[in-house]
From TrEMBL:
Xref: InterPro entries: Acyl_CoA_thio, cNMP-bd_dom, cNMP-bd_dom_sf, HotDog_dom_sf, RmlC-like_jellyroll, TesB_ACOT8-like_N
One of the GO BP terms on file: acyl-CoA metabolic process
Protein name, entry field: Cyclic nucleotide-binding domain-containing protein
Domain of life: Eukaryota
SUPFAM superfamilies, sorted: cAMP-binding domain-like, Thioesterase/thiol ester dehydrase-isomerase
A GO molecular-function descriptor: fatty acyl-CoA hydrolase activity
Organism annotation: Triticum urartu (Red wild einkorn)
Gene3D superfamilies hit by this protein: Hotdog Thioesterase, Jelly Rolls
Domain Cyclic nucleotide-binding: 15-85
CDD domains the UniProt entry points to: CAP_ED, Thioesterase_II_repeat2
Pfam families cross-referenced by the UniProt entry: 4HBT_3, cNMP_binding
Amino acid sequence: MDREQVTEFLGQVPLLQCLPGSSIRRIAEAVQVKHYEPGDYVAREGEPVDGLCIILDGQAEVSAPANTEEANRPDYVLNKYDYFGYGTNSSVHQVNVIAVTKLSCFVLPSQYGHLLQTKTIWNAEETPESHSLMEQILHLEKLEVDIFRGFTLPEAPTFNQVFGGQLIGQALAAASKTVDCLKLVHSLHAIFLIAGDNNMPIIYQVHRERDGTSFATRKVEAKQKGLVMFTLIVSFQVIILKVV
């Protein structure tokens, strides 16, 4: 795979989609490819974690620690785009990961782990404070994969309720962080349901309605007090620029 293909693949990994494009491109330069035969250990319980491992092709089986009771052993299978070795609470693997089929993985060595913890969704080298007010409003806090939190800043436009343009912009920012960086906004449809409270954070839940080669569709629900106040349906398309 060439660098562009690696970048496109990494852009499909849910863990990485919330990162700015600059981080994904740097990760694409740092990852290494490793291959395994069926039955090979990809990771052994108790051995050091050497970095983030992302399944490129094939299947691997995860087995629980040896001291886990048989009835509680949560064995399961990892497939393409699945990953392990990220967010561990210790420096050693807690489970065995064994190749079920011929297996290929991308491995991001531990020394590049800082690329997974960028400070903004816009650029890996910048901080939100260096951006314009509009960019600060669109900056969201990631709570979980596909779940983000936004705020109404004191300087933001208000009309005794959350400004509709803010809801559209923040929901679109949330949706854009769940598709690969090569897909750009194609169309959107917004539905305003109830007024929003300026003094409360807004939770944005992204639903992955469709992922195709050229198009992707997302549904975003904005919530306060457990109620859906706004819904955005947005489609993304791969844009190929031709130089004449």
